[in-house]
Specification:
The protein has 19 helices and 34 strands. It is α+β, with helices and mostly antiparallel strands and about 675 residues long. Helix 5 packs across helix 6, helix 5 crosses helix 7 and helix 15 runs parallel beside helix 16. The two termini are about 40 Å apart.
Length: about 675
Amino acid sequence: MAQERERGITIQSAAVTFDWKGYRVNLIDTPGHVDFTLEVERCLRVLDGAVAVFDASAGVEAQTLTVWRQADKHKIPRICFLNKMDKTGASFKYAVESIREKLKAKPLLLQLPLGEGKAFKGVVDVVNKEKLLWNPNSDDGKDFVRNPLLEMSDPELLKETTEARNALIEQVADLDDEFADLVLGEFSENFDLLPAEKLQTAIRRVTLAQTAVPVLCGSALKNKGVQPLLDAVTVYLPSPEERNYEFLPWYKGDLCALAFKVLHDKQRGPLVFMRIYSGMIKPQLAIYNINGNCTERISRLLLPFADQHIEIPSLTAGNIALTVGLKHTATGDTIASSKSSALAAARRAETEGGKKHRRNNEAERLLLAGVEIPEPVFFCTIEPPSVAKQSDLDYALKCLQREDPSLKVKLDADSGQTVLCGMGELHIEIIHDRIKREYGLETYLGPLQVAYRETILNAVCATDTLDRTLGDKRHLVTVELEVKPVETASVMPVIEYAGSVSEDLPTASQEAIENGIHSACLQGPLLGSPVQDVAVAVHSLIIHPGTSTTMISACVSRCIQKALKAADKQVLEPLMKLEVTVTRDYLSLVLADLAQRRGTIQEIQTRQENKIITGFVPLAEIMGYSTVLRTLTSGSATFALELSNYEAMNPQDQTVLLGRRSGLTQVL
């Protein structure tokens, strides 16, 4: 993307397929910026292994933790690569220590760097006791020599490497019993005689078991250390056959794939990226989308080589395919070969599930866990250049939403404006930029606003009756319910029914009640923001025969709004976790500025020359912080933000906020 080249960051994940020493590798490059966490989440769903890339001068950063946790959640074996070894301030020892301390992982040092910072010229392979030196004049890193370490030429380095190898052998033996038996049996006298292949096999086992992580180092700028990294990927990370997914036996070799990304191409229309778990995909194949309950046809099948796509006749399990011609498939959809195949798999799942007393909802069992989409925290209005262009803007936003599910678009009922909801300032800025470049629309963004939430502080009962006659039909509903706060944080209202209500309640009426409750909780009484952390108890419900479900929903909704208005109300604001990296000279300035922003500081750590401030700041106070921080520190500080949770606002701030909102409405 043009934006990626300009900013020098990854925004969208890109898929590449390449061959390395007889292996086919499907690589997905994911973003590291917090605004694009969703991109990482949906790619991890379809990976078998991962390479976590660290900046050797910074070690584990705020976003590294987030991504590491996501990989833990999906149980993905990984390798660590300490990049930027040629950067001033790079420290191999510090970075490894931070992996041990902050990620609570066990690093296995498979390499040692030869020099750090400007002096970095290559790496030592600890397993094979070899040194790899790159030609300093080669820009693409292809030109390097691999020599065994000899007592004559490198006595010091050989001693250091032998110690590192012995430490590695002991570490692996502690984690792997089979290897421990081998070491203690045959090679207890002299670890040097232990063949490299045996050690590699044991490292592979502990990597796949996720009890430890191999650590390699290098510099991507001149491709130093990239070849040994690719070797490590093929040696230590799992192949698709080694990941045992519980749903595979149900499909019995039939097609099962997950659509994990949608791109819009001007010429070809929507391109859908799929990970094939079993079966095979061919062009002109009809496939069945379980989530959308629809059948579609794949017109062409492509293999992604970065920004070039190569057409291919078929693709088998374990691969990542790019399909053309699917109009309705969206991110997170599960694909099967046909409806009957999906039902057969559901039956197999059910018989197996029955044995294990698992949930037996057929469709749900089959859906590969889709992608959890985080709630947006920023929103702003977007205006087309003229009313005539509104339909073009709607189309552009519809395409962008299919590509990026973390972007939400809604219509403001009061003003009729289109509202964009996103994950951060950068996210919204890039969407704005893409509409301009890719769809040729000069749009106008309103000021950024914060997505507040609301809740109540006490329980309130309310009753409501709706009595309407439409034509010759009388619709009559009387409802009595109670709204009360709940301790546990829940975005959706918790719904309870009194025994007398739930006994003979038809499903249609129950759905209507729940729709009414959900729609009423979307707009709170204070700011019109969603209401969370509430429970609704329906005490009594009298429905006249022949009353439509719409009327039931309307009555329940009105009753909830009545109850919410009567309760003591509280605004909840998003609290961001902030990490600022700053030099000692500017520390006091940054701390003073954060205090003005209602920030609370948790800890201040020292990382080499820098201080790391960790704390929490309300999102409303951190708008445009990057510019302020640059000015304060003459551009030397960096910061990372992520949503922590929603906190109750204190009464003074809440009064100021409400005053500002009502003041604005009067001006308008």
